[in-house]
Amino acid sequence: MSFRCYQLERYLGEEESRVHVLRGVTLDLQPGSVHAVVGPSGCGKSTLLYVLGLLDHPDAGWVEIESEQMSHLPDNELARRRNELIGFIFQFHFLMEDFTTQENVTIPMRRLGRLSEPQMRERAATLLEAVGLGDKLDRPSRHLSGGEQQRVAIARALANNPRVILADEPTGNLDTENSQRAFELLHDLVRRENKALLLVTHNRFIADACDWVHEMKDGVIIKSHPHGERISVS
Question: How far apart are CA 215 and CA 8, in angstroms?
């Protein structure tokens, strides 16, 4: 599945004080590839993720999925495409603290409305098993460690079998061991199921393990280079 953005422009703030956050960003994410966006705080990385994830509208340019431009679609249609095609992982996992791990993972499936209750619970259990939490299906998320909570968030992001995964500092609140584990889990999944992953990170070791690294500054991708080249992570 092709996933592209072309010449994205985004302004934030009121007219008299608005900030030009994205300045003509173009990216092409191929199935089975892992991409990192790196750069200093405030350079537009998170805004880019929100526009790519159809959570925010660009002021110019477009997002294209399977050769179809998304930006002109009405909000209800954007919500449907987002739920079907895109999985999100955030630095702060946003789990429902009093819900069990299994209940948290079923939330996106309930929104999509394609599976029965037994099917949703079975898929949630399978995903939690895949992230090493198969023995904690009934545990409230507030009783999990930080690393475990982030693994639940990864399982939730995969609930509707998205073709593209967008991750904003997905390991930012984890220690080194759990950061590596979470990244390897996502990396292996992308390879195995031919998905695409774009993550924002300040972790140079994770960025250096990606297929492509896109360096961003002042709303512009100033350089894109393949795995193994020396990178600058601010």
Answer: 16
Q: Say yes or no to pLDDT of 233 above 70.
A: no
**pLDDT 10s digits, 154-167:** 899 999 999 999 99
pLDDT in tens, 39-57: 998 899 999 999 999 999 9
Per-residue H/E/C for the chain: CCEEEEEEEEEECCHHHCEEEEEEEEEEECCCCEEEEECCCCCCHHHHHHHHCCCCCCCEEEEEECCEECCCCCHHHHHHHHHHHEEEEECCCCCCCCCEHHHHHHHHHHHHCCCCHHHHHHHHHHHHHHCCCCCCCCCEHHHCCHHHHHHHHHHHHCCCCCCEEEEECCCCCCCHHHHHHHHHHHHHHHHHHCCEEEEECCCHHHHHCCCEEEEEECCEEEEEEECCCCCCCC
Burial (CB count <10 Å: 0-12, 13-18, 19+), residue 49: buried
Mean pLDDT rounded to a whole number for the chain? 88
